[in-house]
Write a structure and sequence with these properties.
- The chain has 252 residues and is of the alpha/beta class.
- It has 2 domains: 73 residues, Ribosomal Protein L25, Chain P (Beta Barrel), CATH 2.40.240; 167 residues, SPOUT methyltransferase, trefoil knot domain (Alpha/beta knot), CATH 3.40.1280.
- 33% of the residues lie in helices and 25% in strands.
- A 7-stranded parallel β-sheet has the order 9-8-7-12-10-13-11. Strands 1, 2, 3, 4, 5 and 6 form a 6-stranded mixed β-sheet that branches.
- Helix 3 packs parallel to helix 4, helix 3 runs parallel beside helix 8 and helix 6 packs parallel to helix 8.
- The radius of gyration is 20 Å and the shape is elongated.
- The relative contact order is 0.15.
- The mean pLDDT is 92.
Length: 252
C-alpha cells in the first residue's frame, strides 16, 4: 500500500474547518508543495498533521483546498508527547544553524533554545528569522513523519536564561579540556527517568568563557563530553541530539 504524503497545517486553521464542512484552504506554498513537489492529483488522499500529536486523512480537492475525512475531534491517530522531553540550548553559530534545526527536528528534539554568549559569533535581534526557522521545522516534521512539532524559543542572553531555568529539570553543558567531564551517555543514565525535561547546552565555536562555566556549574549544570575530539557547534548539537534520542528510545 502506498504511503500517503503528509502536510502540517497549523492547529487554528484545522479548528476553523469545523465551520466550513471540514474544508481547509491551502496557501500558495502548501499548494505548490502538494502539486509541484509531491505530485498530488485531484481526489487523492493525503495525511494532515497539526504538530500537536493529531493526524487526519484528507482528500485533495479542486480550487486549492483539502477536506478532512473525519471530524477534527476524531483524528485517525493521536499520540501523547512522551517524556522526558529532549531539549537543546545552543549558542547560534555563524553558519549552519538552519541545518541544526532541520536535523535535530528529524532526530527527535522537542525544544530548542537559542542563546547569546560572551563569545557568540552570530547574534540575532529578537529573532527576526524565527518565521524562517519555524518553516524549516515544519518541513522537517513532514519529512520525518513526527506528530509533535518542536518548540523554538527566541534568543536570550546566557546569564538571563540561567535565571529562568526550572530546577526540577536536568541540565548539562558541553565542555572541553576539563578533567571532571563525564560522557553524555553516563550523565543521561544518571538522571531521574521520571523527569519531564533534560537539557544539553552547546556553546560557541570559541568555547565557553571561564565565567560562563562557573555560572553553569553554580546553577546545577553538569559538565559533559561528547567524545575524545573537539567538535564544531553544529556537529556537537547533532551528536548530542542523536545520543539523547537513542537514550530515550531505550527508557520509554
Amino acid at each position: 500500500m502506498k504511503e500517503l504524503n503528509r502536510i502540517l497545517i497549523e492547529p487554528e486553521r484545522i479548528s476553523e474547518s469545523k465551520n466550513s464542512n471540514r474544508i481547509i484552504f491551502l496557501n500558495s506554498k502548501e499548494l505548490h508543495y502538494l502539486v509541484n513537489v509531491m505530485r498530488i492529483k485531484l481526489n487523492e488522499k493525503i495525511i494532515v498533521v497539526d504538530g500537536g500529536g493529531n493526524l487526519w486523512e484528507a482528500n485533495f480537492e479542486s480550487n486549492g483546498k483539502i477536506r478532512l475525512l473525519s471530524d477534527i475531534n476524531k483524528p485517525k491517530i493521536y499520540k501523547n508527547k512522551t517524556k522526558p522531553l529532549l531539549c537543546l540550548a545552543i549558542v547560534m553559530p555563524k553558519k549552519g544553524f538552519e541545518d541544526i534545526i532541520r536535523m535535530s527536528c528529524e532526530l527527535g528534539i522537542d525544544k530548542i533554545q537559542i542563546l547569546n554568549s560572551h563569545r557568540s559569533v552570530a547574534k540575532t535581534d529578537n529573532n527576526k528569522k524565527l518565521s524562517r526557522w519555524e518553516t524549516i521545522s515544519k518541513e522537517a516534521i513532514e519529512q520525518s513523519e513526527r506528530l509533535w512539532k518542536p518548540e523554538i524559543n527566541a534568543s536570550i542572553d546566557l546569564n538571563e536564561w540561567f535565571n529562568t531555568i526550572d530546577k526540577n529539570y536536568f541540565y548539562s553543558y558541553g565542555a572541553t579540556r576539563r578533567k571532571d567531564v563525564i560522557h553524555i551517555y553516563d550523565w543521561m543514565n544518571s538522571v531521574n527517568k521520571e523527569t519531564k525535561q533534560i537539557w544539553v547546552t552547546i556553546g560557541p565555536e570559541g568555547g565557553w568563557s571561564e565565567q560562563e562555566e562557573e555560572m553553569a556549574l553554580g546553577h546545577g549544570f553538569t559538565a559533559i563530553g561528547l567524545g575524545e575530539t573537539i567538535l564544531r557547534t553544529s556537529t556537537a548539537s547533532i551528536t548530542a541530539t542523536a545520543l539523547m534520542a537513542s537514550w530515550k528510545r531505550n527508557i520509554v
